[in-house]
Every structure is written in structure tokens, then in C-alpha cells.
């Protein structure tokens, strides 16, 4: 085992989700744990995995976690009765099950293993998750990284120093990822980094930032900061959430963004507005394939003097190649969705940035980085 001050988990991708690999349990086998992939979710706190004996199970490879065979599995009891949990997500997915403690294994900077005992997690027994619909789904649960005391980063305690960081590769790049979810001393700060305050609201899990405006290239749109402001409820303001594939922009701001992009693209020849099949609202077909060329940057202006979060074209748009019998057709879409309540900076928009959540100092630190280059 290694000094666990450099704990890290390998980040991989399944469909639109970023996932991390963990080891869990103690078995009479080599290695002595079972390996699973969990979705990396900064918008929730609970760490959980689908367990065998589930009465409502989603499809996954490998089989659900065989809790009964692990010598380090301990249900959490209250007056000798197991404690249960219920967790529901914003997209309608949910998990119910038993609270327990178990030994987790992650990688480390030196290539060894970091062993963490008595991690509190949920053993999912009644699980309704969209992953099950994907062919060969390998996601077995969720690693919650939110504000809560039960989140993975909080449970690591002094080893993580309240900090975690990641660099999400662009999904469509086709390259396999060799990037890591890092904790504590494993995180490198860059002299060009920017920062904005992180907020917690009503003792809930998600991380909030203050979004104040949006620009296309260098032109700021006429959107009042009030549109994004926190109101006295959970369903306002702006979250930053690795578990949401696309950003969600509150409708008045989305309408302005869409209108200005339509004006921007009206200057180009060979573009035709279409309905794409990604569930995205603003899509154009091109007469010849150009990838991300001639697509503008979009900037989210966050609170702070130097806190512009600049989305290069590959983070702002989705480009889809279309093979027709005659010739290659390509279309692109704004990779954002309108939303009636709370805005969310999603995973697609966070790609090719080093993102550091510093929960002790309540800061989000970020800077551009090529996430395909083993960061």
C-alpha cells in the first residue's frame, strides 16, 4: 500500500457520462477487491453501488457487488436494525438501499494502491437508473462529491484537504482518456488559474457559482445578472455539476443566446437550420464538413475580477458527422438546453479545463488545459 496523500481515480467515459474506477470489498481472491465504475457526480453527496439481492436492478457489467462475501462489509445499525437510505436525483433517477461501511481502493501517484477503510456508502437494493438502458452498461453506481459530510471527498478527511480536481477530455475526440480525479496534494495549481467563490445553499449537496453574464466571442449579451441571481429557494442561481452532460441555461438568457447565435450564423453561406436528433434546440447542417472551425467561443462570466470561463468551440458545440449515400453531411448544435429554474454548467462545457473544487476555502479554481494529454 502507498502513502494515501496522493489518491487518484482513473477517469473514463461511457456515453455522456464521466466515470471513475474504484476497488471495493475484501475477498479471498487476487486482487482482494472487486473493481467497479461509478459516475463522477459533483451534484450529489451519496456514494453508492448496486448490490446483489437488489429487488429492482438496472443492467450492468460486472455483476452487482456481492456484499455477503466481503469480510469488510458492515451494515450501519441503529438499535440493532439496519439503517436505510432514499436518494432521488433531479433527472428522476433514484436509489434506495442499506447504509453500510466498506473498504475502498483507489490508485495513487506512485502507481500503487491507496486503501481507505470504513467508507460510508449506500448498498443499492431498489435502483431506477437510466444507465441500464445502455448496451453493455458498466456504471454500477455513483461517487457523490458534493458538500455533504458523506461525500467521498469529505470522507477522505485530511488526506484530501477538502480539495479535488479533474480535467474532462472531449467525448467526441475518440481518444481514450488517461486523466485522473485527484485529491489533496496531488493537485497542481497553475499560475494562470482563475477563481470564483463556491456556494452551498440550504445545506444541500450541489456546488453553486454566481453566473453574471454570457458573451459570444468578445461580445457580451444584453442579459441582466438578475436573471441568474439566487432567490430564496433551491431552484435558482447556477450550479456547476459534472453529472449533468449538457449545460442548462435559464430561459430568458437562453433565448438571448440563441437569438444572437442565429444572427452570428446568418452571415455564413452553406448553413441550413435543422432539427438534430440530440434533443438540442439550435442545430445547423453544413454543406461541407468543417469540424469545429468557424464556430465561436462562448464565455460564462462568473463572479470575480478574473473569472471568465471561456468555452472553446468544442466545449460550446456538439458536431455530428452524417453519412448519406451521396456525400458526407455534417451538422452542429449548441450543446446547451433551456431550463426554467436553475442554470447548470454541465460536463460538456467543463471539458479541456482543469477544474479544482476547494471546499475549505470555498473557491472554484480553473484554467484551460488539454485533457487528452495525461493531466
Structure, explained:
The chain folds into two domains: 4-186, Cathepsin D, subunit A, domain 1; 194-368, Cathepsin D, subunit A, domain 1 (Beta Barrel). The chain is built from four helices and 29 strands. The chain has helices at 152-155, 251-265, 313-316, 347-350; strands spanning 7-14, 17-24, 34-41, 47-50, 74-75, 77-78, 81-82, 84-88, 94-108, 113-128, 139-144, 163-167, 179-183, 194-197, 207-209, 211-216, 219-220, 238-240, 247-250, 271-274, 283-286, 298-302, 308-311, 317-323, 328-334, 336-339, 343-345, 353-358, 363-368. Strands 1, 2, 3, 4, 5, 8, 9, 10, 11, 12, 13, 14, 28 and 29 form a 14-stranded mixed β-sheet that branches. The two termini are 23 Å apart. 41% of the residues are buried. The mean pLDDT is 91.
What is this entry, summarized?
The chain is mainly beta.
Range of strand content:
35-45%
CATH architectural designation of the largest domain: Beta Barrel
Average predicted confidence as pLDDT: 91
Estimated structural class: mainly beta
Compute the CA-based radius of gyration. 21 Å
CATH topology of the largest domain, by name, is Cathepsin D, subunit A, domain 1
Distance between the termini: 23 Å
- 3D shape: globular
The H-level CATH homologous superfamily of the largest domain, spelled out, is Acid Proteases
What percent of residues adopt helix (DSSP H or I)? under 10%
Major beta sheet summary: 14 strands, mixed
Number of strands: 29
The total of helices stands at 4
Q: Runs with pLDDT <50, length 5+?
A: none
User: CATH top level of the largest domain?
Assistant: Mainly Beta
Structural domains: how many: 2
Oligomer classification: single chain
